[in-house]
Design brief:
Length: about 170
C-alpha cells in the first residue's frame, strides 16, 4: 500500500510538472503571438500618418480643382484672352505643314483675327485654316496638326493639372 501511495504521488508530481511545462509553453507562445501582433500594429500605426497625409492631399487637390472648375464654369468672354491663347498655341507648331484651328462658330471672327496677327509676326510656312465647330465650347479651341491635336479648354487643362498633382506629393 505504501508503494501505491508513493506511486500515486509520483504520478501526481509528474502530472503537475507536465502541467507546469504546458502552462509555460502556452505562456511563451501567447507572449510571442502578442509580440507579433503588437509589432504588426506598430508598423501599421507608424504608416498611418503618411497614408492620412496622402489621402488629405488628394482630397485637397480635388477640392481646389473643383473650386477652380466652378469659378471657370462660364466660357471665357474676353476675345483678347482667346486670341492670345490661339497665337501661343500656333507658335508651338510653326513647323507643321498643315494646321486646322477648330473653334466655336461664335469665336470664328476672333480666331481669324488671331491668324492675321500671327501671320504678321511669325515666319510660318504652315497652311492654317479655321474650322467653326459647334462641338467646341465657346472660348475654347482645338488645334489639329498632322497626327496630333491639342484641346485648349478648361476641363482638359484641369485634368492635366489633376494628373500632374496626383503624381507628385505636395510635401516632397
Amino acid at each position: 500500500m505504501a508503494t501505491a501511495v508513493s506511486k500515486s504521488r509520483e504520478i501526481i508530481r509528474a502530472a503537475e510538472q507536465e502541467a507546469d511545462l504546458i502552462r509555460e509553453q502556452a505562456r511563451r507562445e501567447g507572449l510571442a503571438q502578442a509580440q507579433r501582433e503588437a509589432a504588426s500594429f506598430l508598423l501599421s500605426a507608424a504608416d498611418y500618418p503618411r497614408k492620412l497625409t496622402e489621402r488629405i492631399e488628394a482630397e485637397l487637390i480635388d477640392l481646389a480643382l473643383d473650386v477652380v472648375e466652378e469659378l471657370l464654369a462660364t466660357p471665357f468672354s474676353d476675345p483678347q484672352l482667346l486670341k492670345a491663347r490661339i497665337i501661343r498655341a500656333l507658335s508651338s507648331y510653326l513647323l507643321q505643314p498643315v494646321l486646322t484651328l477648330r473653334v466655336n462658330p461664335s469665336d470664328e471672327t476672333i480666331a481669324q483675327a488671331a491668324l492675321e496677327e500671327f501671320s504678321a509676326i511669325a515666319d510660318c510656312a504652315s497652311a492654317i485654316s479655321v474650322a467653326p465647330t459647334s462641338s467646341v465650347n465657346q472660348g475654347s479651341f482645338i488645334l489639329c496638326a498632322d497626327g496630333c491635336s491639342i484641346k485648349a479648354d478648361i476641363p482638359t487643362h484641369l485634368a492635366a493639372i489633376r494628373r500632374a498633382l496626383n503624381r507628385k506629393p505636395c510635401h516632397a
